[in-house]
Amino acid sequence: MSSYYNSWEPEGPSVNTEIPGPKAKAAIKELDEVFDTRSLNMLTDYQKSCGNYIADPDGNVLLDVYAQIASIPVGYNNPTLIKAARGDEMINGLINRPALGNFPPKDWADVLKSGILKVAPKGLNQVFTAMAGSDANETAYKAAFMWRRQHERGGSHIEFTEHEMESAMKNQTPGASELSIMSFKTSFHGRLFGSLSTTRSKPIHKLDIPAFDWPQATFPLLKYPLEEHAEENAAAEKAALDEVEHLILNYHAPPCAVVVEPIQSEGGDNHASPEFFRGLRAITRKHNVLLIVDEVQTGVGATGKFWAHEHWGLTDPPDMVTFSKKAQTAGYYFGNPELRPNKPYRQFNTWMGDPARALLFKAIISEVERLDLVNKTAQVGEYLYGKLEGLAKRYPGQFENLRGKGMGTFIAFDNPKRDEFLKTAKKFGVNIGGSGTSAVRLRPMLILEERHADILLEALEGIAKVLA
Amino acid sequence: MSSYYNSWEPEGPSVNTEIPGPKAKAAIKELDEVFDTRSLNMLTDYQKSCGNYIADPDGNVLLDVYAQIASIPVGYNNPTLIKAARGDEMINGLINRPALGNFPPKDWADVLKSGILKVAPKGLNQVFTAMAGSDANETAYKAAFMWRRQHERGGSHIEFTEHEMESAMKNQTPGASELSIMSFKTSFHGRLFGSLSTTRSKPIHKLDIPAFDWPQATFPLLKYPLEEHAEENAAAEKAALDEVEHLILNYHAPPCAVVVEPIQSEGGDNHASPEFFRGLRAITRKHNVLLIVDEVQTGVGATGKFWAHEHWGLTDPPDMVTFSKKAQTAGYYFGNPELRPNKPYRQFNTWMGDPARALLFKAIISEVERLDLVNKTAQVGEYLYGKLEGLAKRYPGQFENLRGKGMGTFIAFDNPKRDEFLKTAKKFGVNIGGSGTSAVRLRPMLILEERHADILLEALEGIAKVLA
Predict the structure, then answer these.
(1) Which stretches of sequence are listed as region Disordered (chains A, B) (predicted)?
(2) Residue A269 domain-assigned?
């Protein structure tokens, strides 16, 4: 494989102090005066971080397979991105921030077409740009509500009634609709009020925050190994689809859209089969409910396809696909012109994204294409998965429910002492994240190669021995 | 006054074609294929925009007193910002985007203290960083809900009950609270689901989107000139405060916070007196309800103070102050340590802001300080307001309800043909925005000088003659 990254990466991890070490501890204490540090994982020296390696102020360097919660696509201090960041175009985007809906830059069509839209999912040729995953999902939801109400009114030419306008100003029906967005149990779609109403990951994410009375369907939590539970899993998926249809037909606040992650990521790396997702597309289409695919964590190559939903073999595309994280910008794709609201200023805000971040995504896309990183991720993922199967056999109970076969490096397993597992990993020179209650989730960058996978595997084996 | 900006600004506006001209029209047509252009005001050539002047692809150059909906603080292509954008620190922040809550940069405390927190409102020494105005407000609201529920439970040491945790996952009480955020009629606080529930600007912003059943109080819409309606206005403010107190005590979903703009900006540039705001602070304090001041549009100098609420002479500071726009980043300030939730990961998201944008704000602050731009804005505003009073006398009906005296350049007036007024302005070489139904709002940058004000005034007189 390519040794392009050899030139700017260290040979391997090096751990010299406990983490946090003395320098980090002093800096964290200072930071905590002004910024809540209780969720701090590792104070980071980004200047010294490089490729697949994350550094800290005490000189520790770890192989990073968490990558800023799956947000770093092509490595720390990637030379191609440095070059893009130094360019006049980027500087212009950074210092002259436009209100994109009112005053778009003269070359905005080109920035979109040669960047964000160059990788648009099949069937989706338009984009609404946003700032992060939560508002990407919420603007998609808003588009869904407006679309559905327009259908109910009888078309885009029907004007709003006085009663609708007055009641909307009072947050009451019919102006404020009583429709809903359906999501799945154990899903994660963001943390603002609308997105949090669809998030069903953990109580700590939701407690005390007012929520909309929207429906949730059961996600078909599969049993592993898949080949030993084929019948049971198929039945679980069938039951889940039946529940979706039942809720569409009977829930008191009718859903105008279903939002789903291709792999439930924060919720514990829960997968479902392509058949399940094809069934979900069929049911939503049948009942005129939109399908929003939340690719905030799965998108941009990590599953061995640019978009994870490409694994499903859909003939009828999703209505909207949301993105963020590895794109370093955010928004949602759509194809149906009816998803542009019937009047301007209904879907609008001051910034509507960030041109600097859109330009960075363009640079990321060209780096991914130049180095064929999606295909390489598929290959490295296959290698890594095979080796993990071996580890799972040698260390029973330590790599339970291994999952993500054929999904690039988007791999996870359960460990009964998960939090200790993650903590111990740092001593072995690896930065790893968790998800759900017991999953260890691998979220390496797209530049992970077999030699990095070998370093990771050696560390995982070391951890397993310690915890055994 | 300083002629620092002479070196990089044109002499004055130049209008060569209708706007949009032929080049803009062609580019807009292309853009519309992939991006909704119905809210487009002016396709912009940001490379050629300079200081107070905005350029378009047809070579037209306008004095810009709209400034990307009040978002450009120190001029297009400001040399100081270019220098900051070219620096290694900024490039690092741009290409190595951290998950700030988990992996903050080692110097994050310094970036905050020497930037965002250097200008923190009095009494507020902590910050939660966000991406834009809507999520700045929504995270502040979340903090308010968690704070209030903690008080109701009896303290931060009280654990959540099983029933709370289970019901939260179902979006039901008691886990999902039935508290509310109170806002004012004609207010604007953002467009996501929680913030939109507090926004009461126009039906077009709210129609079809589900909303929380939260209370709204009447904003004391003052009559002008103020000196002729002193008694009436005082009575309106008294009535508004009485309504606030009544709603706090009686609304079926008790408010845990009141959110208010120092000047209602999108809603039509509605002002209230310092006495009103001091009264609001007193009432909220009395009833243990938080006061959130939304300085998204008023903040960062335009009113002749760094924060508009400094005009109120509060002895007891607001609980939270939100910011965005001219800060080029976003978030909320707070002082009370109880506004940090009792456990980590309750107020959290992947990015929690953007270090590149935080560094840009730091550069903006140092430019504002170096050139004393807040005081200069106060002076230029006084000059401009005086001249506008003269215009209002000479052109009766054209500059109605002139308002913003003593509030820097944050000035507005009503015109019966407002939309035509704004359109005609471009022919006179000026880019101006509106707000509410009939207001012309001036939102120049902080680098507007008397000579720019003179150009603006000449244009305004020209428009008034055309429309008379």
Answers:
(1) 1-20
(2) yes
Flag whether pLDDT at B89 surpasses 50.
yes
User: Sorting pLDDT into bands at 50, 70 and 90, what band is B1?
Assistant: very low
Number of domains in chain A: 2
B350 tagged catalytic:
yes
The candidate with the shortest Cα–Cα distance to B93, out of B107, B79, B114, B78, is B107
Which of chain A's residues have a Cβ under 8 Å away from the Cβ of B40?
101-104
pLDDT of amino acid A8: 81
Closest chain B residue to A202, measured at CA? B169
Straight-line distance from the first to the last Cα atom of chain B, in angstroms, rounded to the nearest whole number = 34
Is B254 within a domain?
Answer: yes
Domain boundary among A369, A391, A410: A369
pLDDT tens digits, B174-216: 999 999 999 999 999 999 999 999 999 999 999 999 999 999 9
- Contact by Cβ (8 Å): A346, B209: no
Contact status, residue B447 vs residue B6, Cβ threshold 8 Å: no
B206 touching A, CB under 8 A?
yes
Contact A42 B169 (CB under 8 A): no
Residues in chain B, total: 468
- Taking the Cβ of residue A252 and every Cβ of chain B, the question of whether any pair is shorter than 8 Å is answered with no
| Residue B3 pLDDT exceeds 60 | no
Beta-carbon pairs below 8 A across chains A and B: 388
Angstrom CA distances, A434 to A13, A385, B346, stand at 20, 17, 17
Domain harbouring A206, CATH code: 3.40.640.10
Contacts of A108 in chain B (CB under 8 A): 31, 35
According to DSSP, the residues that pair with B126 across neighbouring strands are: B334
For tokens 């001091």, name the residue: B278
Residues A389, A301: one domain? no
ipTM: 0.97
Strand intervals (E) in B276-374: 290-294, 320-323, 330-334
Q: Is B162 on the interface with A (CB under 8 A)?
A: no
Q: Are A279 and A338 part of one and the same domain?
A: yes
Residue A118 φ then ψ, to 5°: -65, -30
Q: From the list B36, B84, B169, which residue is nearest A206 (CB)? A: B169
Partner A, chain B 70-99, Cβ-Cβ below 8 Å: 71-72, 76-78, 81-82, 84-86, 88, 90-99
Contact residues on chain B for A207, CB-CB shorter than 8 A: 146, 149, 160, 164-165, 168, 175, 346
Q: Would you say A192 and B192 are in contact if contact means Cβ atoms under 8 Å apart?
A: yes
Q: Please write the tens of the pLDDT for every residue from B319-353.
A: 999 999 999 999 999 999 999 999 999 999 999 99
Q: Is residue B348 part of a domain?
A: yes
The residue among B314, B317, B298, B294 whose CA lies nearest residue B306 is B298
Given an 8 Å threshold on Cβ–Cβ distance, is B77 in contact with A69? no
Residues A25 and A68 placed together within one structural domain of the fold: yes
DSSP string covering A115-184, please?
TGGGGPPTT--EEEEESSHHHHHHHHHHHHHHHHHHHHHTSTTSPPPHHHHHHHHTT-TTTS---EEEEE
Residue B462's CB is within 10 A of a number of other CB atoms, namely 16
pLDDT in tens, A373-413: 999 999 999 999 999 999 999 999 999 999 999 999 999 99
Residue B447 in domain? no
Expressed as residue numbers, the domain containing A121 is: 88-369
Rg of chain A in Å (alpha carbons): 23
